[in-house]
Amino acid sequence: MERWLALELASTIRHDGTGGVTDDLSTLQGTARWLRQQDDLLTEQSSTEKPPASQATAEEPPAGRASAGEPSVRRGGMGEPPAKQAGPGEPPTAQVGVSGLPVERAGVDGLLVDEEFRAEIVALRRAVRALFARAVSPAPPSRADAHRLMPVEEALAHVNGVAAREAVVPRLEWPQGEAPRTRMLSEEPDVRVRLLAALARAAIDFLNGPEREQLRACSAPRCVRYFLKSHGRQEWCKPSCGNRARAARHYERRRTSDEPATP
Q1: How crowded is residue 213: how many other Cβ atoms within 10 Å of its Cβ?
Q2: Could you tell me which residues come within 8 angstroms of residue 261 by beta carbon, excluding any fewer than 6 positions away?
Q3: What's the CA gap between 233 and 151, in Å, rounded?
Q4: Distances from the Cα of 24 to the Cα of 9, 10, 57, 120, 219, angstroms
Q5: Which of 112, 117, 102, 92 is nearest to 43 (CA)?
């Protein structure tokens, strides 16, 4: 099943299965876990760091560090000890580990998620969800934040501003016997800036693409997800939401028919 990074970000606010709403980005550990889960999408969307000219030739990798094209085995985050424990007075962090991906492609291996970085991702999510609400209009937006949406102009400025924090340059590559491909190069040294910019670019690509026309807010009781409609009459994000919505309609019809007629 195809996944979209922007939709995955918006879906970090979701129904918890017991009638409430949960936020996957509410803690440092949860944010680190979510970044690990999106490693494949982040790899597709992220730029590749351009090495300095003096380091363009192959070098022996430092001990414990993967060479280009080899998988990193460094891990961390939820359930595993971080590389550094916060000392007295230091803010807590959670480590992101992406196994099986080259460091220079994934851009997240060994990244320490602190409260500032978590807050930046949450702020970007708020802007994306505001633009999703505009995309599904005039239909109602997700119930999770319909009463406190970021103004559209502010949301646009925020997404564009985060994307602009990383300058990227397209590079055409055409290996012998293969189809041409484009690789995005960046000289941005801050991995966190690159990840935030990748998330913002994913939102821009999504909202500027054909998927926007299929975006819907699930209308099932208690569901707060956005989803892509796969057929003409689809109203819900998954079958369980459809079952819950039909049961609610049936209950409402029974309740209405059982009410005594007004004299």
Answers
A1: 9
A2: none
A3: 30
A4: 10, 10, 41, 14, 21
A5: 102
SS3 74: coil
The C-alpha angle with vertex 48 and arms to 94 and 31, in degrees rounded to 5, equals 20
Helices (H), the chain: 5-10, 28-37, 39-45, 103-106, 115-136, 152-163, 191-207, 239-258
pLDDT at 194: 92
Whole-number Cα distances in Å, 18 to 28, 145, 221: 23, 19, 12
Q: Would the pLDDT of 68 be above 90?
A: no
For residues 72-97, give the mean pLDDT: 47
Q: What is the pLDDT of residue 66?
A: 37
| Burial of 195 per CB tally in 10 Å (0-12, 13-18, 19+) | buried
Q: Computed over its alpha carbons, how large is the radius of gyration of the chain?
A: 22
Tally of residues, the chain: 263
What is the spatial distance between Cα 224 and Cα 23, in angstroms, rounded to a whole number? 11
| Cβ atoms of 249 and 39 closer than 8 Å | no
pTM (two decimals): 0.73
**CA count, 13 A, side-chain hemisphere, 76:** 21
3-state SS class at 174: coil
Residues 165 and 219: their CA atoms lie apart, in Å, by 36
Cα–Cα distance for residue pair 10/124, rounded to 1 Å: 9
Q: 3-class DSSP state for residue 249?
A: helix
